[in-house]
Design brief:
The protein has about 220 residues and is mainly alpha-helical. It has six helices and five strands. The longest helix is centred in the N-terminal third of the chain and has 30 residues. One of its GO terms (biological process) is protein secretion by the type II secretion system.
């Protein structure tokens, strides 16, 4: 038994080496390039795309519109605008009375009185030239704004005894009796007299439109304040 074992010990390494060589050769053959590697098609797994049909697209758009509408409707309403600031109404009542006093008074003109004043207050302010001139006036009458008080009897003719016309109390018809004075100029004289509280002098008549120096000289001798 000792001799065969010694012989196998000498043969075994050779057999093992031969077998290993054949295995290695086979592996080399299997691993060797074939020349067709570039032609091989490798199929990688594809990621599935999400595809929506036309119906799904329409439904999705409708849902989005509905959501936007709901959000809009649920928003709180804007606060109402502040109420307008009330504007104080303009006063319709006149706080004071402005009255014109003309005629036979020392200081004809415009006078201002408190509401409730009477004709007697206006006469006292203007100062009648002769107490007899106020006999035709109702001194207890309340004053009216923008009114005019003519001191002198209304029944008396405006022309004085010598035929002259009283500039501060004559009517339009009476002023038309003057030489060269027509209805339009006579009305302008009365309008100026009312707006200025009477004439302070005869010369002031030249401030009326239509009364120039020549016309004034022609009628001055027929006038009296």
């Amino acid at each position: 038994m000792t001799a065969p074992r010694a012989a196998w010990a000498r043969i075994s390494p050779w057999l093992v080496s031969a077998r290993m060589k054949r295995v290695l050769q086979r592996l080399g053959q299997l691993a060797a390039p074939t020349g067709t590697e570039d032609l091989m098609v490798v199929e990688y797994p594809r990621q599935r795309r999400l595809e929506l049909s036309r119906t799904h697209s329409v439904i999705g758009a409708g849902v989005i519109v509905a959501v936007i509408a709901i959000i809009f409707l649920l928003q709180p309403a804007p606060p109402p605008p502040p109420p307008p600031v009330p504007v104080a109404a303009a006063e319709t009542s006149t706080p004071e009375l402005v009255v014109s006093v003309v005629g036979e008074v020392h200081t004809p003109g415009l006078y201002t009185f408190a509401p409730g004043a009477r004709v007697a207050d206006a006469l006292q302010a203007a100062g009648p030239v002769d107490p007899a001139h106020i006999l035709g006036l109702n001194q207890a009458e309340k004053l009216v704004d923008s009114s005019q008080i003519v001191v002198g009897s209304p029944s008396e003719p405006v022309p004085v005894a010598d035929g002259r016309v009283r500039l501060n109390s004559a009517t339009v018809a009476e002023l038309e009796q003057l030489d060269g004075i027509g209805a339009k100029t006579a009305a302008a004289i009365v309008s100026y007299r009312d707006s200025h509280g009477g004439f302070g002098s005869l010369e002031e008549l030249q401030k009326v439109k239509g009364i120039g120096p020549a016309k004034y000289q022609a009628i001055a001798q027929d006038l009296v304040l």
